[in-house]
Structure formats: C-alpha cells, structure tokens
Amino acid sequence: MPRSLSLLLISLLVTAIPQAQAFDFDKALKKVEGASGVDAGSTDKKAADSKTTAPATDTKPANSTSLQQTDSTDSRQAFNWKSPSKAEEIQLGREITGNLLGAAPLVKDEALQKYVNQVGRWVASQSKRSDLPWHFGVIESEDLNAFAAPGGYVIITKGLYRKLENEAQLAGVLGHEIGHVEKKHHLKVLQKSQMLNMGAQLLGEKFGKDNQTIDKAIGSGAEVLARGLDKDAEFEADRIGLALATRAGYDPYGLPEVLQILGQVGKNDNSVALLFKTHPSPDDRLAKLGDAVGNRLDNIKDEKTLENRFYKLKN
Amino acid sequence: MNIPKTTLLLALLLLPMISMAAEMGTALKDDNIRAEPYADAKMTGKFTRGDKLEILSKQGAWLKIKTSSNTGWVRLLSVKRGSSTGSGNTKGVLDVASGRAGTGQVVATTGVRGLSEEELKGAKFNEAEVKTLEGYAQSAAQGQQSASSGGLKAIKFASLPEGAAN
User: Fold this and answer.
1) Any idea what the CATH number is for the domain that residue B68 is in?
2) Nearest Cβ partner of A106 from B84, B129, B142?
3) pTM score, two decimals?
4) Is residue B99 part of a domain?
5) 20 to 30 Å CA-CA from A251: which of A5, A24, A37, B3?
6) Residue of chain B whose Cα is closest to the Cα of A274
C-alpha cells in the first residue's frame, strides 16, 4: 500500500473512529457485559425496537441485498463488534469452526453426517433462530464433547456420539449447542473481550485498523471453545436443549440421559478433561434441569426416542 | 482338587450377584417420595441430597426407589444413577444393564488426536474441511421430511424458566 494512502487511512481512522467509538463505547461495553448473563438475548437497541419473541436478526431481511450491503460496510469498517450482523456472526462462526476442524477433521462418513444434519436441522427449526444456515458435524476425536460456534455451527465428537443410544439423546445434545447459538453465548464472550481490547487500545492511543480483524478477536485457533462459558450459560443451554428436543417431538429425557452417562465417566478420564473443565458437573446440571422442569413434562405424550433408526458408527 | 472347588464356589456366589445386581443411585436434591408415579400421589416420605438409594424400576419420568427408610416413586431428574463418587467403577454395571458392554468403552488414546486446550489453541484453519461440512447441510424442509418419516410431530412447549429449588 502506498505510504500516502495508509497515512490518509490512518488519519481518517484516528479522526473519525475514536469519536464514534467514544460515543458508544461505555454503553456498548455495558451492553455486552450485561448480555453475558442469562436471558439477555438481544441488545438494548433491538429489544427497544421490538418486543416480539422473534430473534433479533429477524428484524433484518435476510435477502441478498442486505447481505451485500453488510459486506460492503464490512470492507470499510472491518467488523461491527458493537452489533454484528447475521452475516458477520456466521463469518465469525465459520472461522472458529474451521480452526476446530483443523484440530480434528470430520468423520469421513457421509451418511452419518447427513443424518446428524437432518436431526440437528429439525431441532434447530424449533428454535428462535430457524433462519440461520445450520451446520452440524461429527469430528474424529475420542474425547466426549460438543461445540457450538456463532451463526449456527454445531460439532459433536465421535467419542460422544458413540456413547449415545438413540436419536432423542442426539437431539438433546444438539439442542444444548443450538441453545448456545440462539442465546449468542460465544458471540457475547468474543464481543466483550474485543470491546475490552479496543478500549485498551484507545487508551493507549494505538488504535489501528488491524485491531478489528476477526483473527485477533478469536485468539489463537479454536481457543474460544476451550475457554468455556459461565455456568449459567451452560444451565441455560441445557434448559433450551431439553425444550427444543421436546418441541421436536422427541423424548424430553434424551439430554438428561446423556448427562447421566457423562456422570458415570471417571473424573480423571482424559476423554472428559476439557468437557469437565468447561462445564458444571453433570450432577449439578441434572439437578438444575430437574428444578427447571418440575412438573412441566407431566403431560408430554407420544414422545419418541427412535433408537431403531439411530445411525450406528462404522468404527 | 481345591481349585475347581473354589472356582465352583466363586461361580455360585457370583451368579446371583450378577443377576440381582440392583442399580444404585444418589439423590441429586431434596425431593418427595410418593406412593405412585404421579405428581399428586400420596407422599410417603422424603429424601435429601446425597442420600444413597436403590433403583427398583422405571415408569415414564418416574423411578421406583428404596432408601434406608422408605420405598416409593420419585422424579427421574432427582436421581443420579450409579454411585455418586464418580470413580467410574459403576460404569460396567450400567453398561451391562443397557446392553452396551464392550462397545467402545475402551477409549483408544493412541493415534487419535485429542481435543485438549493446547490442541485447540494450536489449531489451524482448514478451509477444505469447512467446505465439506457445508456440503452436508440439510435444508429446513429436509429436516422436516426426515422428522416426518420418523413419525416425529412438533408440539408446543414453552421455554423453561430458570428453576427454583424446591
């Protein structure tokens, strides 16, 4: 890049952006901090816009025009961390998922992957973010774990899949991850740390275009998935997972059954090291779920486990 | 002479143990024990978080359990199955019970990359794998079709509020 052009860019950034940032920064930071807890599904502004149950992103039409607009805005302003668009959210999730797949590739079994996508897509259709382009995958790892990334990316390890006995349990696990996406749990963590970064950089007067790239926000690799969320976010995802599987017509006890299975694995077993580090204990999760469920499942009828068509791993 | 005798004796001792091995459990929270598997059935007692119990049978969302002082029905979600120590020693019993003994319970750690924190941090973006993942995507209509063929019907079910311990 010619030097004069970069100088021009920098001066433009220095003059224009800090003001814009300063204007909103405190509020934005509070917003993100407040939102990292339970049930803070949408930002203040969006909540004010509409009190409907519709997801925040539904307020924007998802047609190609709006995507293009977002894209062209992106190229000028990098990434809108204060309130990322749906396209930006997906872009972020794709990046994180690509990193995760760099650590453990997909199981090369197309029938398995399609099956998991069919189940996952049906469960996701019961969520408030049915509009997202959902992606589900099983990866080559004997760890017991599952991951969610912003924008509708859900990954389960082969090790965990192997422990499952029926489709209702799979639906429960995928439902939990879909819950993280619906509530934007990881997105909020990334937003918060990015806001703090930007704040620090503003204070240090080292603000530059480079600081807003996605890479920096994600950190290295799929680190954000190893960091974990706060306990309440996990309990919330359990409640959503159970509710989504129930809505989809499955036996609601699929997810609790998986928690029972996880509770039987020795705490020092390597295959659950990361899962247990990033999640409350299965016992606590079961107890919390029990408290939330109470008698709400007493009238659920005709629910299905579908163990007959549950896809069996080839190895 | 002595060895076959001992073996026989052991076998005799073990046989009933295996067939009668009751599933053990632990109370995950304080809850009421009821005479029948219904929310409005008569209360016959209570159990306290951490109480050891024996699981006798299951009916829908209810477990019939036996504590040191009581027998009756409690909600499924109030009980952790197996021992509470998390030692992993009860795994075998449960696996036998669910017919899953020997299926992939031995976790092979050699030659399989794990997903430790370090490995996730060091991971490099893999575009080809993301493309493959995207290739597996199913539309909402395809998801619905798969659900219908399995006899699944969507039902209304309200979101679960954060529960208050009872």
Assistant:
1) 2.30.30.40
2) B129
3) 0.75
4) yes
5) A37
6) B116
